[in-house]
Amino acid sequence: MVVLTISGDDAWVDLGGVRLLNNVWGRGSLVNGTDYHQSLSYDPALFPRGVRMQWDWPDSGVSGILGYPELLAGFSPWQAAGPGDMVGRVADLRQLALRVDLGLLGAARDHNVAVDMWLTSQPLGSSATIQTEVLVTLHDPDGLNGAPGVAYHDPVSGYSGHYTVTTMTVDGQSWQFIAMSVDSDFLHGTIDFAPFLKSLMRAGLLSGASYINGVELGAEIWGGEPGGLAIRDFGVTFSRYAVTAGADRLTGTAQADDFGGAGGNDTLAGGAGNDRLAGGAGNDRLLGGLGRDRLDGGAGNDVLIGGAGGDILLGRSGADRFVFTAADAATDQVMDFQHGVDLLVFSSLRGAALGPLELRGDQAFSGGGHPSLRVTAQGDGVLLQLDADGDARADVTVMLHHVTEIFADDILF
Fold this sequence. Notes:
The protein is about 0% helix and about 45% strand. It is an all-beta fold. Strands 2, 3, 6, 7, 9, 10, 11, 12, 13, 15 and 16 form an eleven-stranded mixed β-sheet that branches. A nine-stranded mixed β-sheet has the order 19-21-23-25-27-32-31-30-29, with no helix packed on it.
């Protein structure tokens, strides 16, 4: 084992596409080696695993964040450095997963452990292009303690926190600052930041056109007793959907995906998980797959196939087809069905049914092997219950919102 140490102000080393940086931007007039000590040790053969960050800053006469020793994966707009292999628009993010195994050394009260992400108006943009900073703490003794802030929970990793939105101004430059404080330490495991960034986008707090360039992990130090951070494991997995102005074929993961097309006739498949798919312009084909999905066709003549699970389907403009391909106990929601324009397609369910589909109104199913459809007024629309095989039991249930009646020519069976 060969252990190397860097301790100079803002000294750094690049290995394997990851930068180790001894950030001390808040030192002011303090003198390195006299008033404070901050060093980073690493073994080149193990890096970025095995990094040890250690510091000893004054306990009085200082204010604000003194240092942020860090690992940087990807590109930093502040240093205009790092590989450009982690660049993509927020709207196109598929995965931005951070894997960590961290240990707190010494006092844990006078620093946090934080992930910092800078969103810019241009790919690999300079600091002048920064639009939003998103900071997510993994250890936060001085956090929000549950209030105020907007609650966020990631069901996959188990991470929970609360975030606030403010404005940060440094040297005359201002940007939006979104800071999430962890509810309890998250020092071991993997968290995917793509769903969080997408949720901020849906809330109107981030532009889908903003670029993510990299991920920084470090400790914000505000003084006090000697402390440190041991990084036993560190890795970032980045991927994005290759969205173009043409006809794209995009497939999600087994988790909850959130992506969309642009121009062109796109095919989007969510797979498992509670997915959000948006077709955009063009005649698109959206397949939700398993889970409670939200499909938004956008402009054009779209085909929306929710799949298993209670799905929410929006055709938007154009002549859209809402397709139901298999029996499902859950209720699907069609939010904007247009009589005479859109079509409800149940033809895949016909099977061995005898005779044409019978519209039963609010009467009981006819049974006897004869397919029938019950239509009953409910809430702001009508509830459809389809008995596709004539066994007098509903195979598919669909709620049509903002509709008062349904006609035979609205249905393909």
